[in-house]
Design goal:
Helix content is about 35%, strand content about 20%. Strand 15 and strand 16 form a beta hairpin.
């Protein structure tokens, strides 16, 4: 019977429990299918620190090599380090990681040459179909000439490339606490930060895919608590937290207070526009703060609003030639990084901005944090479409609001807005609300939740 991959092949990647949902034998088929769908003569493969990652990556490499593809293994790496290798070598890539998921999970993030995304509409559906077929019929006939398997170190080159994109030469000395969450930030941060005028206080830098200290998911406030406590105790200028595969970064100020990812998006957007002569397009998804398009316009740029999700951001980056893109989930995309996301480059921008002036981070980011936001609030519902229809009915006849359905339902007024989106994988509705003051935001939030949870 063919393997059922419906539970592990997601919209943008492969992700599931090992070995219950997938294993090395399926990873080998994924490698062969990736080779066939991309038509590549060479690929690059990397992996994170999860116990199952080296074996899965090696099996994938064997599957691709059997199809005649030369495979360069870069070993332990962050996801954005894999994107660097794909871009610099101009070959497709495969990163074995389950990002912030618990230890028993693993997955594959795939890209074409130049770090171009692979999702359901850009090759992942074909890869799934081949793996499901071959799991019944057996792997395809090997190529007449099998590909080679070689190793290559890319960490130093990755770090040098990032540092070439941000001027850190004249920053003042800073003390920074970094929480790597036992993820790949513990591998990349020491090399990227080497030689900079920084006093680094490492937290949980030991690579451990069982995550003994806390989940490597800084989007959950519970996983920022240790960093928030440590920063003021150390008298540090800021704190930075990375997720498991270190492609997202979260920032806390000198008091340990979280800095909104929208504020980081606005700050980096202003800096990238300045690097590009005060002109350029900046992408932001529809749940980022009103601050982001305002700052982009104030700095001479053109803001473009998109759906949530990296495939939409990357596609719009390529279509519009945008110089930068940001999401409220703390993914940051750069034209100079093959339109791919790299939290490390965003972190370097924050260090450069803070180190280039004398004030504290809280004062620096205040100008980029102008409104009151709810954060993302999830509600479990039995009927997602029915609850969204109820919201449309509740707000559709009001003359003081506008509605759009670019991604879920967005309702906007002069002083507030909210967006409600269904989860693709769980029976959840996700609410984000923002207003010009805290009281208005709370009133809108509670009114919407009452309809969702009715």
């Amino acid at each position: 019977m063919a393997a059922d991959l419906s539970q592990i092949v997601k919209a943008y990647d492969v992700r599931g429990v090992v070995p219950d949902q997938w294993d090395e034998s399926l990873a080998e088929l994924f490698g062969a299918a990736f080779a066939q769908v991309t038509g590549a003569r060479a690929i690059v493969v990397g992996h994170d620190m999860r116990p199952s990652s080296p074996g899965l990556a090696a099996a994938f490499a064997r599957g691709a090599a059997a199809r005649g593809v030369d495979v360069t293994g870069i070993g332990l790496c962050s996801t954005d380090q894999l994107y660097y290798a794909s871009g610099a070598l101009d070959v497709p890539g495969a990163m074995f990681t389950a990002s912030h998921n618990p230890a028993q999970y693993n997955g594959i993030k795939l890209c074409r040459a130049g770090a171009a995304p692979v999702g359901q509409d850009t090759g992942l559906a074909e890869i799934r179909a081949l793996v499901e077929r071959w799991s019944t019929t057996g792997a395809p006939e090997p190529a007449q000439r099998p590909g080679t398997l070689t190793r290559r170190e890319t960490l130093d080159d990755y770090a040098a490339h990032l540092r070439s994109l941000v001027d850190l030469t004249s920053i003042r000395p800073l003390k920074v606490v970094v929480d790597a969450g036992n993820g790949m930030g513990g591998h990349t941060v020491p090399t990227v930060f080497a030689g900079l005028p920084l006093t680094l206080v490492p937290m949980y830098f030991e690579l451990d895919g069982t995550f003994p200290n806390h989940e490597a998911n800084p989007l959950d406030p519970a996983n920022l608590v240790d960093l928030q406590k440590r920063v003021p105790v150390e008298g540090a200028d800021l704190g930075i937290a990375f997720d498991g595969d270190a492609d997202r970064c979260f920032v806390v100020d000198q008091n340990g207070d979280p800095v909104s990812p929208s504020a980081i998006t606005a700050l980096v957007a202003a800096r990238e526009l300045a690097r590009n002569g005060g002109t350029g397009t900046v992408i932001h998804n529809l749940i980022t703060s009103w601050t982001v398009p305002e700052v982009v316009k104030e700095n001479g740029g053109t803001p473009v609003r998109t759906r949530v999700g990296h495939s939409f951001i990357k596609a719009e980056m390529a279509r519009s030639g945008a110089i930068f893109g940001g999401e409220h989930s703390a993914h940051y995309y750069f034209k100079d990084f093959w339109n791919a996301d790299t939290g490390m480059l965003a972190a370097l921008h924050v260090l450069a901005a803070l180190g280039g002036q004398d004030g504290p981070l809280s004062a620096l980011v205040a100008q980029y944090d102008r409104y009151a936001g709810s954060g993302e609030i999830n509600s479990t519902v039995a009927d997602q479409a029915g609850r969204i229809a109820a919201l449309k009915a509740a707000y559709g006849d009001r003359e003081d609001v506008t509605l759009d359905e670019l991604d879920g339902l967005t309702v906007s007024a002069a002083d507030w807005w909210f967006n409600v989106r269904p989860s693709n994988t769980e029976p959840l509705l996700r609410l984000n609300a923002e207003a010009r003051d805290e009281a208005t935001m709370a009133a809108v939030r509670d009114e919407v939740l009452a309809v969702i949870r009715a």
